[in-house]
Design a protein that fits this description.
InterPro entries: AB_hydrolase_1. Belongs to the AB hydrolase superfamily. By secondary structure, the chain is α/β, with parallel strands linked by helices. The chain has a single domain, classed as Rossmann fold. The chain contains ten helices and seven strands. It has a seven-stranded mixed sheet, with helices on both faces.
Length: about 270
């Protein structure tokens, strides 16, 4: 099976241009980038895709053993790039995909030229002197609720993730996206996402990295973004003036501006 089918890979723009890859977060799909992508198609070859189990990917390709860690998803990104003969790619990852991109940059640094992390969290659980935003019991309760009543959990959590009560249409869109995922896959991916601990990987990232932070962000608080910034040598930290965990949906102009500034493109 090709990655084009497995991951619903879409490539736009001209192949002679630098390549930029957009990777969606948990419960989402590539359509979440629709307000951002058009601003890059003139100067870049653009790749969007769906993680296996999400969007219009081939859900039959979901392997619970392979995707029992974020390494499985990183392996898919590597496979997409290799299949299309690409390297030196600018990787833009939202939420959990920020860490997936980090793992790719560590495993195969020749594939990633620059890394943009939107709302990253290397570990959601508070650990000793580390603040992740959630106590372990909070995550355990969330996963238990998710397992008992996924649709109810989805309708509760999506407005929290969006964080913009003035934009209920995006909460509804995200809820519909969550609900389109096969429940057993959604539960498994959530558990992997929220129990992963990739703090020790951050110092291994050697490519230029931008961290985009919103405030407030209940899912990945500013303190977490600052931690990521301090752990990645030479990284850039920027805060955009909008609330919620999905600025590429709710504040795309601000998101585009910061990405372009980092890439020295269009301004």
């Amino acid at each position: 099976m090709t990655t084009k089918t497995k991951n619903n890979v879409k490539i736009t723009g001209k192949p002679e241009h630098p390549t930029i890859m957009f990777a969606h977060g948990y419960g989402c799909d590539q359509s979440m980038w629709r307000f951002v992508v058009p601003s890059f198609t003139d100067g870049f070859q653009v790749i969007t895709f769906d993680h296996v189990g999400s969007g219009n990917s081939d859900q039959s390709a979901y392997d619970f053993e392979k995707y029992d860690s974020l390494d499985g998803y990183a392996g898919d990104v590597i496979e997409i790039l290799e299949e299309n003969g690409l390297d030196q790619v600018i990787f833009i990852g939202h939420s959990v995909s920020a860490m997936i991109g980090a793992l790719v940059a560590i495993k195969r640094p020749e594939l990633i030229k620059k890394l943009v992390m939107i709302g990253p969290s290397p570990c959601y659980i508070n650990k000793e002197d580390y603040y992740g935003g959630f106590e372990e019991k909070d995550i355990e309760e969330m996963i238990s609720t998710l397992e008992d009543n996924y649709l109810g959990w989805s309708s509760y959590i999506t407005p929290v993730i969006i964080g913009r009560p003035d934009k209920p249409e995006f909460s509804e869109e995200l809820n519909n996206s969550f609900c389109s995922i096969r429940p057993d896959i959604a539960k498994h991916f959530a558990k992997v996402t929220f129990t992963s601990d990739n703090r020790n990987d951050l110092s291994k990232i050697k490519v230029p990295t931008l961290i985009i932070q919103t405030e407030p962000d209940v899912i990945a608080p500013e303190k977490v973004g600052e931690y990521v910034y301090h752990q990645i040598s030479g990284s850039v930290f920027t805060k955009i003036q909008t609330a919620g965990h999905c600025p590429h949906l709710t504040a795309p102009e601000l998101t585009i501006e910061e990405i372009k500034k980092f890439l020295n493109y269009g301004g």
